[in-house]
Automatic annotation (TrEMBL):
This is Prolyl oligopeptidase family serine peptidase. The lineage of its organism: Bacteria, Bacillati, Actinomycetota, Actinomycetes, Actinomycetales. One of its GO terms (molecular function) is serine-type peptidase activity. It comes from Winkia neuii subsp. anitrata. Residues 454-658 form the Peptidase S9 prolyl oligopeptidase catalytic domain. InterPro entries: AB_hydrolase_fold (IPR029058), Peptidase_S9_cat (IPR001375), Xaa-Pro_dipeptidyl-ppase/CocE (IPR050585). It comes from the Bacteria. GO terms for biological process: proteolysis.
Length: 662
């Protein structure tokens, strides 16, 4: 449609084919991409099935099918783990054998694709155990896994264990062998190809695993016990993640000792697991570690969910890896002998796992024109296997990102993406400027991405501008950028958001009287504090937002029990920062109309906390709306909830700003 035929209508009033019904009907979340031989596996989180996680397999001939049968108790399998409460890697597959964690009872099950009539067989007892991060050892007939033990009356214990594949531990829990339980947390068990060594990482409170973690290696006996053990890397200022073995059994890992999450290679394991070498300790003496490609690139990210997999073996001489650099994501190959990096121009940006088997690369990726998709790269050709959503928008309707960098009032550098209103059918009046919706990511150690996000396009296609802020503390810009938020959460992030908005106002890109800020979880905390500190905002949307930090601290699960304190720089419970940076303390300073969206069963942020915040705002005369969704937790999972919340948010902004649908 040409410029002359566009209908002129006020910004924020445009209609769009991208309705909440379309988003719900066509979308699901993709995760946990794996490859095994010619088959590709992944998990789909289906909002139409109340958020059930389904394991799918695509064969080389293109057939795609749900893999797992019902449990022996006639339940549909929910591929889910609750380890750390955030979950992560909930299945593994090797040679047509699948081991999976079922969210319904927390047990491990196995399913043999070569013997489907045997059905799903339970491997662990029905007690308060949670399992994740599984790795199968087919020779010893066990699966290594992270066990989170909730049977204790007072505390939760995290252990590295091996579980027999014969099902004996389902009848007798003592058959689960504990290999390591000396740290608060353990993750990422990685078995060498020859089956001789097991690598894993550990960390302890008050650290999070992206702040400090240790890399361990243990030679294994024939029975699967530790014959010995060593800590390969343990530095109080260094985080290590993603241990994985090359095809020649060199140990690869990622650490940020340089200030960036770079890849490292340790040689010397081949032939080292001998009786004499173990007895004398000589197996440790010939290990040599070196950086593969030292650079200001991030080859990993904070591992909130277990099972991060941003690189894999391409062949005996190369790794295939994804990385980020200044907000841009890329994919390429790295030589193992000299670290030479080759960037692949595929048109896709890694957005999750990167996997490979016999030269066939499969990854979760997106682009500025394509939503999150499972993409296969074979013989230099990229093919989409599965899209998270089939977009109804033509390219003319898609708003592309403008990469922004600006300076805060103290001279520090901030990053973000700006999206202008874009429609193939509408344009705004010549002298008008669009309303702005500022999006604050959660974590707060995650980051906004530039790839196609149809929820973002939901706004831009209706005439709203969007600013996604990657404030100080976001990942992908080096450890120093991320760590500077420690002790300064509620200050630096808020200042970065406000300075970004002021920049757009000064540049004449947005309507200064129509600015909203929205965030989820910790992102909502930042949004509410920004509204308290600045009168730039006339509307706020808090999605399962933390309003009372002391309340969340007192109910925190083990994994994040000391995380908020580190972000605040508060080591004691009576530190005044707990109150000073809680939005509820500043409720009398918030004049912007506020919408709360929350699940009634949220275990992280109890709904009563949000109700108290709403009452405090109302007592100050602030306009407040609340949308509670029955049965939902710390994220909305049901299609009706997701669609209903988005429509409620749109109606809220239009009402606040007096905008009527075109």
């Amino acid at each position: 449609m040409s410029e002359k035929t566009l209908k002129v209508s006020p910004y924020g009033t445009w209609t769009s084919e991208l309705t909440t019904e379309v988003l719900n009907r066509r979308s699901f979340r993709l995760s946990q991409v794996r490859v095994s031989g010619d088959d590709t596996y992944w998990v789909e989180t289906r909002s139409a099935q109340e958020g059930r996680n389904v394991l799918l397999r695509r064969r080389m001939d293109g057939r795609t099918e749900e893999v797992l049968p019902m449990t022996p108790d006639s339940e549909l399998v929910d591929v889910r783990t609750k380890v750390h409460d955030y979950g992560g890697k909930a299945y593994t597959v090797i040679d047509n054998l699948i081991v999976v964690s079922h969210g319904g009872d927390g047990c491990l099950y196995k399913f043999d694709l070569d013997n489907p009539s045997a059905g799903l067989r339970r491997l662990t007892p029905k007690v308060a155990y949670r399992f994740a991060d599984m790795t199968v050892d087919p020779v010893r007939g066990v699966v290594f896994a992270v066990l989170e033990d909730h049977t204790g009356a007072q505390s939760v214990a995290n252990k590295l264990v091996s579980v027999p594949l014969d099902g004996s531990a389902a009848r007798e829990s003592s058959n689960i062998k504990v290999l390591w339980n000396e740290d608060d947390f353990v993750a990422s068990p990685a078995l060498s190809n020859a089956g001789e060594f097991l690598a894993f990482i550990t960390w302890n409170r008050p650290q999070m695993n992206w702040n400090q973690a240790a890399l361990h290696v243990a030679p294994l006996t024939f029975e699967g016990d530790f014959a010995d053990h060593m800590v390969l890397l343990d530095d109080p200022e260094v985080s290590v993640t993603q241990p994985r073995w090359s095809l020649d059994d060199n140990l690869i890992h990622v650490d940020d000792s340089s200030g960036w999450a770079n890849l490292y290679r340790t040689e010397g394991f081949v032939g080292a697991n001998t009786a004499q070498g173990i007895a004398s300790g000589d197996w440790k003496k010939n290990l040599r570690t070196r950086a593969l490609h030292p650079s200001q690139k991030a080859f990993s990210a904070p591992e909130w969910r277990l099972g991060l997999h941003s690189y894999d073996n391409l062949d005996h001489d190369h790794l295939v890896a994804g990385w980020s650099e200044d907000g841009h994501f890329a994919l390429g190959a790295i030589r193992l002998d000299n670290g030479q990096l080759e960037t692949w121009e595929t048109g896709w940006a890694p957005a999750g796992n990167v996997c490979c088997d016999d030269g066939r690369v499969v990854l979760l990726a997106d682009s500025e024109q394509e939503p999150a998709s499972i993409v296969q790269i074979l013989d230099a050709k990229a093919t989409v296997i599965r899209r998270a959503i089939e977009s109804p928008l033509p390219k003319e309707d898609i708003s592309s990102p403008q990469f922004l960098t600006w300076k805060n009032t103290d001279g520090s550098v901030c990053h973000g993406f700006f999206f202008v209103p874009t429609s193939a059918s509408f344009k705004g009046p010549k002298r008008d400027k669009p309303p702005l919706i500022v999006t604050v990511h959660d974590g707060p150690t995650s980051a906004n991405r530039a790839g196609l996000n149809l929820e973002r396009q939901y706004w831009t296609n209706r005439g709203f501008a969007v600013l996604d802020v990657n404030f100080r503390g976001s990942t992908g810009y080096g450890r120093a950028y991320r760590d500077c938020l420690l002790g300064n959460w509620g200050i630096y992030d808020v200042d970065d958001v406000i300075s970004g908005v002021r920049m757009l106002i000064e540049q004449g890109k947005v309507d200064k009287d129509k600015i909203a800020i929205r965030g989820s979880s910790t992102g909502a905390t930042t949004a509410l504090l920004a509204a308290a500190k600045s009168d730039l905002f006339t509307a706020v949307c808090s999605r399962h937002g933390i309003c009372d930090l002391e309340n969340v601290r007192d109910h925190a699960h083990k994994f994040a029990s000391e995380y908020l304190g580190a972000l605040l720089g508060a080591t004691e419970d009576d530190d005044p920062k707990w109150k000073d940076r809680s939005p509820i303390t500043w409720a009398d300073q918030i004049s912007a109309s506020t919408l709360f969206i929350h699940g009634t069963d949220d275990p992280i942020v109890p709904v009563d906390q949000v109700r108290q915040m709403a009452q405090a705002l109302q007592a100050n005369g602030t306009t407040v709306e609340s949308a509670e969704f029955t049965g939902e937790g710390h994220r909305l999972a049901k299609a009706s909830s997701i669609g209903g919340s988005l429509q409620r948010e749109l109606d809220f902004y239009r009402q606040v700003w007096g905008l009527k649908k075109a």
